[in-house]
Structure formats: structure tokens, C-alpha cells
Design goal:
It is a single chain. The chain folds into two domains: about 180 residues, Rossmann fold (3-Layer(aba) Sandwich); about 60 residues, rRNA adenine dimethylase, C-terminal domain (Helicase, Ruva Protein, domain 3). About 35% of the residues lie in helices and about 20% in strands. Helix 4 packs across helix 6. The termini are far apart. The relative contact order is 0.12.
């Protein structure tokens, strides 16, 4: 019996109905698939039934990686590595369909890495189908003027259209986590603000590190006290970071770039 490692955030998805639902979200026949954190291979087995062209699986746990290789043989390509250290763009020339039951402890790091490293005019994936802790998923899909709205919301919605598929009860996993999860579907957004992701990351980090402060302080910090930016973008300085919509943050990143060009 495989024992999950708490240090790696392992909770294996075992609910057959959810596993079937995941592989039916998008067509994967003759497509190249990347699965993050396959664990014991429960989802991998269902993916194979859909006859993809090729499957890459990234599994950090060495013992599980060996088990997967022994079980699936040459049907899959096993990468025994931390996903945060993998360059997904170099895996294959095809655009990838990505599945992932992401470890709770690094799920936002993984998503942020992918978004911030996207090429300007090219996506390395056709879609992402990812499982998050429900609380994190709620943050990703939240709207402005919400207490859950924050950096990961703004970064995610910059270049991705996001749809919630369903909530998944903790009883669907083994070992059973203390919280429920949510399954999200991401597709590339082909019309977006052409800004440097590093600048957007800096803007959002500066604002949301002080999310209870009024907007005047982070604006002063970023734009060296230039209040003209607030007038130009019609920003009420008495508001707080959660009160600004996506577009305003993207415009702020544009202005920040102009200032430093």
C-alpha cells in the first residue's frame, strides 16, 4: 500500500466519478497530455483510455515515479522532478492539454510560474484542467470588491479565461484532506493587455501587501508621488486594493512601464 507523504502535499484522487468527469472535460484523443502529480496513476489510467498521442507525467516522489514507470511501461513518459523546475515549453512541439491535482502547498506558485513565464504571442498549452483547494479556487475566480480578490485573481485573469467545473468533496481523496477542493478549467485569452508580466507582478504585490491600506500609499510608492496617474485612470485614492477591477490593474502596469521606458 502506498503511503501519502504529507511533506509533498499528497492526497490521491480516488473517486471514479470525478476521475471520469475530468477526462471528459475536453477532447484529448491524438493530443499530447501533461499530467502534474499523477501519484498512483488513477487519473493516468483514465487518460490512456481516451487514446492521447503522448503523455508526460511529472512526479516529484521518486518511489511513485518508479512505480508509474513499472506499471505503465512505455505508455507514458515519466519525469521525476519538481514541477517548479520543469520547463514545460521544451517538453514537446505540440500544445499540451494539462491535467493536475496540484499539491495544496504550492498550487498558486505553479499557476503563477506558468502565467508569468508565458511567451508574448504563444501558449505552450491548449488548456489547463487543475484541482485546487476550494479556498484557493475561490480566490482565483473571485470578482473585485470581494475580500477574496487579490494577486492570484488578477494574474490568472490577465491571459486566461477561467471556468469552474465543480467542487470536489474531501471524501474523494485518500488520505482525506481537511478541506474540499474545486476543479477549474483555463483557456488561453488571445486578446489581453500587452504588458510585461514582471511589472504586473510588482504592481499587484505592492498593492496587496498592503491590502487594508488606502490606495494612495502603494500608488505613491510605485509612481514616486505622481498623483496624475490616479487622475488619468480615474482612481479614488480612498479606496482599497480589492476595489479596483482587473482592467485598472493592467492599465497601472502599462503606466508603470511607460514611466521606466
Amino acid at each position: 500500500m502506498i503511503k501519502a507523504k504529507k511533506s509533498l502535499g499528497q492526497n490521491f484522487l480516488v473517486d471514479q466519478n470525478i476521475l471520469k468527469k475530468i477526462v471528459n472535460i475536453t477532447e484529448i484523443k491524438n493530443k499530447t497530455v501533461l499530467e502534474i502529480g499523477p501519484g498512483t496513476g488513477n487519473l493516468t489510467s483514465y487518460i490512456l483510455l481516451k487514446k492521447p498521442k503522448k503523455i508526460f507525467v511529472v512526479e516529484k516522489d521518486k518511489s511513485l515515479a518508479i512505480r508509474l514507470s513499472n506499471h505503465f511501461k512505455d505508455k507514458i513518459n515519466v519525469i521525476n522532478k519538481d514541477i517548479l523546475l520543469v520547463d514545460e515549453k521544451k517538453l514537446d512541439d505540440d500544445k499540451l492539454v494539462v491535467f493536475g491535482n496540484l499539491p495544496y502547498n504550492i498550487s498558486t506558485k505553479i499557476l503563477s510560474k506558468w502565467i508569468l513565464n508565458l511567451d508574448k504571442n504563444k501558449f505552450w498549452f491548449s488548456c489547463l484542467i487543475l484541482m485546487f483547494q476550494k479556498e484557493v479556487a475561490d480566490r482565483i475566480i473571485s470578482k473585485f470588491n470581494s475580500s477574496k480578490y487579490g494577486r492570484i485573481t488578477i494574474l490568472s485573469n490577465w491571459r486566461l479565461d477561467i471556468k469552474k467545473i465543480c467542487d470536489v468533496k474531501s471524501s474523494s481523496f485518500a488520505p482525506r484532506p481537511k478541506v474540499n477542493s474545486s476543479l477549474l478549467y483555463f483557456k488561453p485569452k488571445h486578446f489581453f493587455f500587452d504588458i510585461n508580466p514582471k511589472n504586473l507582478e510588482k504592481i499587484t504585490r505592492t498593492f496587496f501587501n498592503q491590502r487594508r491600506k488606502m490606495l494612495k500609499k502603494p500608488l505613491n510608492q510605485l509612481f514616486d508621488g505622481n498623483t496624475e496617474i490616479a487622475r488619468k485612470l480615474n482612481i479614488d485614492l480612498d479606496l482599497r486594493p480589492q476595489n479596483l477591477d482587473f482592467e485598472t490593474y493592467y492599465k497601472l502596469a502599462e503606466e508603470y512601464e511607460k514611466l521606466r521606458s
